[in-house]
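Need a sequence for this fold. Nothing fancy.
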């Protein structure tokens, strides 16, 4: 036997040193994950490695975002909503971790959503490597 199936990988076990809330972003080296539920400190929980999420864009990133455009996580960026320096999602690759791709917002047709102004939030498909670039950059 060369391999044994452990889990589907859509979520991973995670035991934080400090408590985390559902929706908190957790960066494990180059792996950008999102807490699925609240996780108490030193308690085993789960973080999502894929799925579609509404996330907060960078405070200064109000440009149009194309469906399918690469989205990155800036660990100390300033979110459009929330506390400055706590991290945000952006289209800027330099110095940031690849997180996934922009997707259309619920209730919008692909034609209407071909280009969207972020207005503070993005809908992304969390993904761990870019199909076009295995390094995720």
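Here you go.
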């Amino acid at each position: 036997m060369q391999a044994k199936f452990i889990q589907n990988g859509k979520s991973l076990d995670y035991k934080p040193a400090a408590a985390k809330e559902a929706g908190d972003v957790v960066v494990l080296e180059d792996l950008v994950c999102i807490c699925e539920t609240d996780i108490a400190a030193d308690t085993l929980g789960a973080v999502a490695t894929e799925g579609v999420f509404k996330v907060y864009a960078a405070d200064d990133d109000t440009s149009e975002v194309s469906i399918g455009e690469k989205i990155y996580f800036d660990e100390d960026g300033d979110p459009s909503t929330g506390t400055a320096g706590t991290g945000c999602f952006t289209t800027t690759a330099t110095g940031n971790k690849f997180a996934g791709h922009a997707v259309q917002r619920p209730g919008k047709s692909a034609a209407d959503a071909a280009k969207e102004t972020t207005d503070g939030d993005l809908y992304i498909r969390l993904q761990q490597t870019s199909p076009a670039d295995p390094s995720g950059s």
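For context: Residues 8-49 form one domain.
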